[in-house]
Specification:
With about 120 residues, the chain is an alpha+beta fold. It is about 15% helix and about 45% strand. The protein has one domain. The chain is built from three helices and eight strands, in the order E-H-H-E-E-E-E-E-E-E-H. Strands 1, 2, 3, 4, 5, 6, 7 and 8 form an eight-stranded antiparallel beta sheet that branches. Strand 3 and strand 4 form a beta hairpin. The longest helix has 9 residues. The radius of gyration is 15 Å and the shape is globular.
Amino acid sequence: MGGHFPDRLIELSGLSVFTWLMSGNAEQGAKLVCAVLPLRFKSGSASGNSIVVETENVQIVGGGSVNFKNGNLDLAFLPRAKKKQLVEIVSPFEIKGNLLDPELIVKDSGAGRAMGEVL
């Protein structure tokens, strides 16, 4: 059983810029290999600090909480390339805000910022 992420941007954190630009179909997205979400549920909230999501090129680890009563998200993740790259591009990111309108916040890192300037 598998799935796909709708966006190749998640793969960018695990690939060199050249490989990312030449990889796959943007509409197909990143193939989901595995996801482990050991969550604790209490009083309308789910939380976990050992969330792992893996695609063919990237492993993403993180944690945080989702409050289903008020719809608030507070999640933080760190992507890791599964293969060594000539130029590492790793930018931690957060997903915050409301479930109906979440905000993706890419944390400033030198490589991530440099990539943004190149594109």
